[in-house]
Amino acid sequence: MASETLIFRSKTLIPGAAYCPANPLVSSNNGTITLRFRSCNRKGKMGRVFVCSSVSLSPDVPVSGKRPWKVADARLVLEDGSVWSAKSFGASGTQLGEVVFNTSLTGYQEILTDPSYAGQFVLMTNPHIGNTGVNIFDEESRQCFLAGLVIRNLSICTSNWRCTESLEEYLIRKNIMGIYDVDTRAITRRLRQDGSLKGVISTEESKTDKELLEMTHKWNIVGVDLITGVTCDAPYEWVEKTDAEWEFSKDPSYSEEFHVVAYDFGIKYNILRRLASCGCKITVVPSKWPASETLKMKPDGVLFSNGPGDPSAVPYAVETVKEIIGKVPVFGICMGHQLLGQALGGKTFKMKFGHHGGNHPVRDLRSGRVDISAQNHNYAVDPESLPEGVEVTHVNLNDGSCAGLAFPAQKVVSLQYHPEASPGPHDSDSTFREFVELMKRNKSMV
Questions:
Q1: Of 95, 209, 234, 441, which sits with the fewest C-beta atoms within 10 Å of its C-beta?
Q2: Catalytic residue (one of 278, 280, 334, 402)
């Protein structure tokens, strides 16, 4: 039988526990391996020598040395030069992205399918991910657009009556890279201190750390049009409402139907469901759909949706917004809010590490009400740059940033965060009804 070397390591001596030195005494005789090691006494000092139970192996079966558990086979290399060893799940290969952290405790499937994460690695601060598996009902778009998923612990089993497959199976099928067994707490602290960082995830042993680091320095996400890669190809009608089983609004349904044209900059399904539940007939159009064609449809209102990336990278979208403002009521969400800010004459800027999570407190300055909101954005509107007449309606209570706008003279309302908030919270769902009331008032004046 071929000679084998078994290595056991322990960084600390644990009183009362068996202890193996870095190079234990191993002997092999006729297919039997014997390991001698020392134990610790209760004071942590080395005790007497023990001999473990012999393990009988057939001389015809070679000892492979392969561990029965997964070992680190992936790396996350950040642009600051730090290298994080990890274990892979999902797709294999090498992928670039911007690393952001998300503080949501639930809803990882909705996060995976949110188009606003295009080009980004999403690091979940909640340490245990995958325990509810994945199902066909919680998708927020037609595919996963994010660059990859970074988590601390990957659940080894699923426990949910709606589950149809595991998270790992899902990422493999969607060709999305994921890594786990990485210190997400330390990376989060680094992102909070230094800001969002470019990074690369790789399972390829042939690539050196230096090569991966150089890739992060050559790659950029700022100024890149990410919307074109997530928008729909052609207009379509949306009629699906929130399922009765999940309907949480107690307000009566609207008897009057309003036609809304929704610009798809990376729109989430539940935005459309909430509008449909408020009595809206919805036509979804691509991001580059001409404003003139929209106005020919004679809509009661126009929605500018959420989407990924830098609003300054899509000047065509800003021009579309400018052509529609003032002609019909408009509602902007997330990217739509930022585009409205620019179209009204304001400026946007890149935040240090953005807002990503389902626990952001927002104050409505008109009523004093505080909502807990779901947010996902790396850019914000500079309120100081807005012209006279544009009102800041909401502020994020964590950092005081602009979270909502209104321009009554031009029939404009917008939110920086997600009022549909699937899987929650639903504090700001009333904003959809405010938009409907705006369309109703405008219709009565025509």
A1: 234
A2: 334
Q: In the chain, helix, strand, coil percent, each to 5?
A: 20, 30, 45
- Which two three-digit tokens encode residue 281? 């007939």
Distance CA 298, CA 406 (A): 22
Three-state SS letters, 393-406? EEEECCCCCEEEEE
Tens-place pLDDT, residues 197-249:
999 999 999 999 999 999 999 999 999 999 999 999 999 999 988 877 667 66
Residue (of 266, 13, 231, 212) closest to 97 by Cα position: 212
Q: Is 163 assigned a catalytic role? A: no
Active site residue 280: no
Tokens of 51: 């001999």
Which listed residue (98, 110, 140, 420) is catalytic? 420
Measured in degrees and rounded to the nearest 5, phi and psi for residue 32 equal -110, 125
- Does the annotation count 418 as an active-site position? yes
Distance (Å, whole) CA 412 – CA 319: 16
pLDDT in tens, 46-83: 444 444 434 444 444 454 556 777 899 999 999 999 99
Which of these is catalytic: 356, 377, 418, 426?
418
Contacts 24+ apart (CB under 8 A), 401-410: 401/351, 401/355, 402/341, 403/362, 403/373, 404/337, 404/362, 404/364, 405/332, 405/337, 405/340, 405/341, 405/344, 405/381, 407/325, 407/344, 410/325, 410/326, 410/344
Q: What is the pTM of this model?
A: 0.84
Query: What does the angle CA 435 – CA 436 – CA 439 come to, to the nearest 5 degrees?
Result: 90
